[in-house]
Design goal:
Radius of gyration: 23 Å
Helix content: 40-55%
Number of domains: 4
Structural class: alpha/beta
CATH architecture of the largest domain: 3-Layer(aba) Sandwich
Distance between the termini: 61 Å
Shape: globular
């Protein structure tokens, strides 16, 4: 059960945070940071739980509300809509008595700018409790509503993954595990597991990905031994797999394009201390500062450039690289379970424009690659238009580009669905997020 002492304030803070996502299009992380900035730290865990639950179940809640309201769900004030999703998540979570949740939701509405709608909140939630059995059966009968997906997302996954689309919806409707990357310069996996054990934190090592650990339960990063000193970082298993197609060697000159927030930059610096050069480029100065912070925490070195990776004429000079990592901006549909607000903030029209940017980046960066060098293309999404189809078009128009098949990526753990170019790791596979990797060699 949610701690009683923190619940009233936490519910109100959570409703305001969710409403910001709906009204302003900010990310869930941004909404939480703003909501908790002046709040008592004691309410933070409860607020996070309520916000994530409300956002993760948003479209399932929309389907429920459409059966309870006499007006269109979309006509509700954003804050009223947020109060209702927070309450419906609590009812789904089933750790608080049902009528207590309803009473608390009404009290929460009265304590916010949604006070005038407290009667509506009361009536809708109490009707739901009366009709819940029949409504829940209807919701569960449709995989789209059962797994809280917007129609556009379900249609897109069904088109690209006709056999697996319901599996992908289900995987996106779960809580992501917390994966760690042990700094290979500082510790072995076995030694760090002992440190976690001594701190009372349960974890296990990945069987096929060196230096990857998954926690039994997520925890605050400050509770991790040596986190502040860079002994360990938080990074999903699939993201750590970038090391395999890159195949870094001492003396390599490496470019990390679109580098923020810097997890892969840090991984490369950790895994190959003998790199001749490591350059990290990102267009956003605030996000580039996060790269700097990640490197500083691990006492790692790289050259940071605030620049447009799609227009290297202004920053690359005569530099050439043996390895280029293009972790391309994408629709991020493979990490929805970790960032459920993606379903609320993304739109099909925006996603459809992404391949143009991705192709522009590929074409701009390719001339910076030395003959015999390798460009690794990576996304955290599942759409063929941003992955296989995009790369197929690039290869068809680039005479000196050749595919390096995954069978030739030394140590590749066997994850993912193979296509003619790369590997698509699906959400939930081996506990990982959804990622796509492909490696191209310049001949």
């Amino acid at each position: 059960m949610i701690p009683a002492a923190t619940t009233p304030v936490a519910r109100s803070i959570s409703a305001y945070a969710v409403a910001r996502i709906l009204r302003e299009g900010v990310t869930l992380d941004q909404a939480l940071a703003g909501a908790l900035a002046a709040a008592n730290p004691a309410v933070a865990p409860t607020v996070r739980s309520l916000c994530y639950g409300a956002v993760r179940g948003y479209y399932r809640h929309e389907a429920i509300l459409s059966r309870l309201l006499s007006q269109p769900v979309g006509s509700l004030d954003y804050l009223v809509r947020a109060v209702l999703s927070v309450a419906l998540f609590e009812l789904e979570d089933a750790r608080s008595p049902q009528y207590a949740v309803v009473d608390a939701a009404v009290a929460s509405a009265k304590s916010t700018d949604a006070a005038r709608a407290s009667g509506l909140v009361n009536a809708v939630l109490r009707r739901y409790l009366r009709e819940r059995a029949a409504i829940d059966i209807q919701i569960a009968s449709n995989p789209v509503t059962r797994h809280a997906a917007p129609i556009w997302l379900a249609d897109r996954l069904r088109a690209d993954w006709p056999v697996r689309w319901t599996q992908l919806l289900a995987a996106s409707d779960t809580q992501a595990p917390m994966w760690l990357r042990v700094n290979s310069r500082r510790s072995s996996t076995a030694d760090y597991l002992l440190r976690l054990q001594a701190a009372g934190i349960g974890a296990r090592a990945a069987e096929r990905v060196p230096f990857a650990l998954v926690l039994d339960q997520p925890c605050d990063v400050q509770a991790l031994p040596g986190f502040g000193q860079g002994d360990v970082s938080v990074q999903d298993l699939a993201a750590q797999c970038v090391a395999f197609p890159l195949a870094l060697q001492s003396g390599h000159r490496v470019l990390d394009a679109c580098a923020a927030p810097g997890g892969k930059t840090a991984l490369m610096a950790e895994r190959e201390p003998g790199l001749a050069r490591l350059v990290a480029v990102d267009l956003d100065p605030k996000r580039l500062e996060r790269v700097r912070e990640n490197l500083r925490r691990g006492d790692l070195g790289a050259e940071l450039l605030c620049a447009d990776a799609s227009d290297p004429a202004g920053w690359s000079g005569d530099a050439r690289f043996d390895r280029i990592l293009l972790d391309a901006p994408c629709s991020a549909l493979g990490v929805i379970r970790r960032h459920p607000d993606i379903r609320l903030r993304k739109a099909p029209a925006v996603i459809d424009k992404l391949p143009q940017l991705q192709m522009r980046l590929l074409r701009a960066l390719w001339p910076l690659l030395e003959p015999g060098g390798r460009l690794v293309y990576a996304t955290c999404t599942l759409t063929r238009s941003e992955n296989h189809d995009l790369l197929a078009a690039f290869i068809a128009g680039t005479a000196d580009a050749a595919v390096i098949p995954a069978e030739n990526w030394a140590g590749w753990p066997g994850f993912g669905q193979a296509d003619a170019i790369g590997r698509q790791v699906l959400p939930g596979e081996a506990g990982a997020d959804g990622f796509y990797y492909a490696a191209l060699e310049r001949q």
